[in-house]
Amino acid sequence: MDHCSLILLFIGLLFTCTAIGSKSGDKTDHLPQSILELKTFYEVVEILEKRGVLTEYQAEKEKQIYIEYGTKLVGKKKLLTTEEFLSSDRRESIISFSNVVAVLAGVTVFIAASTLITIFVLPRLTDIPVDAWEKILYFLAFSLMFLNPHSWLVFLGCLVFFIALSLTFKLRHRQNNNVQEMSWILFAVWSVAALYQQNREAGYLATMALESALGFVVIQGELITVIGFENEAFIPSGTLSSFFLILIGTFLHITRINAFTIPFTRPFLFIGTFVYFIGLIILSSRLYYDEHKNQDLFWFLQVVSFLSGLLSMLFGPLFGIPFIQAVGGTMFVFWLLEKYAELMSWRDLSGIAVNLFGFGILLYTVAYFLRAFP
After folding, report:
1. Which residue from 21, 26, 36, 338 has the least number of CB within 10 angstroms?
2. Does the predicted TM-score (pTM) go above 0.90?
């Protein structure tokens, strides 16, 4: 079998799988798989009805579809009332359990398929030029991202696109600023996939690519994982950009102006909060001050860090975004730990014991504060 025959066979199998998957769906294929997201769709329909975009009949028909599908999601045999539908599943989660399982399934299938291809298929396909493989990977990636409605296949397509783009950069021998250039391309393509498919997992990937383009990195080494910025120059801009992501995510969460923004609301809030506080911890550290010797900036950053942690614990529950309280509160405790370690003396054993006792009291104070203002 020659090279062209192999490629045509591969493309034919892909179209067959895509056609079978599309026929198996029904009218609920494009509806979200969590009751919380479904309620967001319901609220958008209500807003459109109030603005006169939808007639009362159209809005009621659409809302009835959401209530019926919500009844199916919660496992009730009796149809939920409107009040039961709106009050169900009040607790927010970053990703629903079904989406977590879907993501894990996609990663598992990807690893298993890669292993099987390496063992059984790759030895027979080594004669195919690398350029042909590059085209096949791009075709597979865009087909999975845009030609099927299943969320875990969209996520798999995003991973395949990353592999294809990495291969492109390797083949073209691009050495200058590889990470930033790749990150911007990934952000653009994954954002389009997230909006087109209304896929939150793709939204998370796009947000992580954006943070990577702004200099935030996670480096895995032997027995150690380093989380921070690629170099010192990226810290101020990356921290400020993450703050704007929090503001945008909060605005989208409060206003819910467009259903198409749903894939980015939580990723902006969660990842933006995490990177923002990492940046603040670095910028407000004594080590950073010793490097730049700016006393006014040092104390200003202490105030900003303290107020940021305090406001995240107060306004997170107020705006119905509890995971901002969780992430911001956790990073605030880390910041307090850093400040306490910088201020106290750790020279002798008795001093260490006294300092640890004081830090325990500090943590109890924070815990009491969180209980008093849930």
Report:
1. 26
2. no
